[in-house]
Design brief:
Chain lengths: 69, 404
């Protein structure tokens, strides 16, 4: 599955990093890095991160745009 | 009824089971000065903006109006960071975060997953064959208290002491208007002192010999920003221990209650556990364990929705009301676990937004996944259940369910 983080919306709350630390990473205090191609073993964690992002910035699957799925 | 009495009515125990009509009245009346001099805000846009407003202080020492419901003030310890402003707040929160989350410890919460699941499964397993369950005492309470004690490094055998101290501390928040607050406050202060001393000496004992828990990290960690002083460590540890379980108990219990009231959704979630993370967010909107934030104070006169709130006045942010604001949430009084764009304020927001939110989230998700299968064939023995006294930390005191 693919994900996209809308970095305009992202406020750096890092909820995603807590919940899926192998997919999302915080560089310094604020800059968010992530792996757009989610490995199968991380799907459940990423689903938790999607639900937890306070500003709905993590888009997964179809919402990640064309070729998302 | 007069909008000036709203705060009194909201805190009145008679309205504990269903404060939501009062919140609708609050939103309709805008910001109104209460008879005790405090100001209440209950609309989403205003509460969300105020959570990010640097002109608001979380430090009660900035109050000029007399405080109707004073928290016990510790004489011998500094306030914990929930009651401090930046830059002090930020320094302490960062130092504490070093052992709990990113960027320094990104894997801490994720690593707790297996342990929490084991505790939840064990508690749920013990419900097997019972005809009557108290969801609070048998499940919702023991899970988070065990988890936070383990995370901090508090021995499991000391949980009863932790419970007694916490009860005394929370009771000082909960007094009824006709009650004399003094004895409760005395007891709360004594409990706080004992708990702080206890946690401080546990941490001291691990200086130089860390045992993988947060108390060890807090006492030994020497990062670029230094370490906590002894008194800071004690205040922080008390905060983590209390904030780390009191609220989560209520979220799990509120969750079970809400789902027992919506049996179709209970079945749906039991059959589709992948919906549970989103359902937990909806619970945080619909029945938030922290109903309002009682400790904000403007540092200068500010205008909120056309009303001037003077410097030094208690300004109460009613999160549970903002969460039901129809201008922000369509059909706000409906519990909809599939709700989209659910930017609820259940964990607050801004600089003080809940430190433990990721842990609370996975605990509650795991708890509901373990509990829901056990509730098959059960119904609420009492609806509404008896509530705890607190209007702030709101949740059932007991949640009895019976077979049939
Ligand atoms: C469902 C469970 C929980 C809820 C609803 C909740 C709610 C909140 C809220 C609304 C605040 C903001 C207070 C303010 O702005 O004045 C807060 C702050 C805080 N919470 Fe939680 N909380 C929960 C669980 C936890 C857990 C598990 C921990 C500890 C591991 C924790 C630790 C804290 C701390 C330390 C603060 C102070 C943060 C600061 O001042 O920067 N909470 N929580
Ligand atoms: S949880 Fe959302 S806002 Fe926070 S860092 Fe991740 S994407 Fe950004």
């Amino acid at each position: 599955m693919r994900i996209v983080v809308d970095l305009n919306r992202c406020q750096g709350y890092a909820q995603c990093v807590f919940l899926a630390p192998e997919v999302f990473e915080l560089h310094g205090e604020e800059a968010l890095m992530y792996d757009p191609a989610v490995p199968d073993g991380q799907l459940e964690r990423v689903a938790r991160a999607v639900a937890a992002c306070p500003v709905g910035a993590v888009l997964a699957g179809e919402r990640a745009g064309p070729g998302g799925g | 009824m007069s909008p000036q009495t709203l705060f009194r009515r909201i805190t009145d125990y008679a309205h504990r089971a269903d404060p939501y009509p009062l919140y609708a009245e609050l939103r309709a009346n805008g910001v109104v000065r209460q008879e005790d001099g405090s100001y209440l805000v209950g609309t989403y846009d205003e509460v969300a903006a105020l959570l990010h407003d640097p002109r608001l202080s979380s430090d009660r020492r900035n109050r000029t109006e007399p405080d109707q419901r004073p928290l016990p003030v510790r004489d011998d310890l500094p306030p914990s960071f929930i009651g401090l402003d930046d830059p002090e707040h930020d320094r302490l929160r960062r130092l504490t975060m070093r052992s709990f989350g990113p960027p320094h410890s990104p894997g801490t919460v994720d690593a707790l997953h297996t342990g929490i699941t084991a505790i939840a499964d064990e508690l749920a397993g013990a419900l097997h064959g019972r005809d009557r369950i108290d969801i609070v005492d048998d499940f919702a309470y023991p899970l988070p208290v065990t988890v936070i004690c383990r995370l901090l490094g508090v021995p499991a055998g000391d949980v009863p002491r932790v419970r007694a101290w916490t009860t005394a501390i929370i009771a000082a928040l909960d007094f009824a208007p006709e009650q004399d607050p003094e004895p409760l406050q005395e007891a709360a202060l004594a409990a706080q002192r004992e708990m702080a001393g206890y946690l401080g000496s546990l941490a001291e004992g691990r200086r130089g010999g860390p045992s993988g828990d947060m108390l060890s990290a807090l006492v030994n960690d020497d990062g670029p920003e230094g370490t906590l002083t002894g008194p800071e460590l004690m205040s922080t540890a008390v905060l983590l221990l209390i904030a780390g379980h009191e609220t989560t108990v209520n979220l799990i219990a509120n969750g079970a209650l809400t789902l027992l009231r919506h049996p179709d959704l209970l079945v749906r979630l039991r059959e589709a556990p992948e919906l549970v993370p989103q359902a937990v967010e909806e619970l945080l909107r619909y029945e938030p364990p922290v109903q309002f934030l009682p400790q904000r104070t403007p540092l200068t006169d500010i205008e909120v929705a056309g009303v001037t709130v003077p410097r030094g006045a208690p300004l109460v942010l009613v999160l549970a009301s903002a969460n039901r604001d129809p201008l922000r949430f369509p059909d706000p009084d409906r519990f909809d676990p599939m709700r989209e764009h659910n930017q609820h304020l259940g964990f607050g927001g801004g600089a003080h937004s809940c430190f433990g939110a990721p842990l609370a989230r996975i605990e509650t998700q795991i708890a509901l996944n373990a509990l829901l299968p056990r509730l098959e064939g059960f119904r609420l023995a009492e609806d509404p259940p008896p509530y705890r006294r607190s209007p702030v930390l709101r949740g059932p005191r007991r949640l009895p369910v019976v077979r049939g």
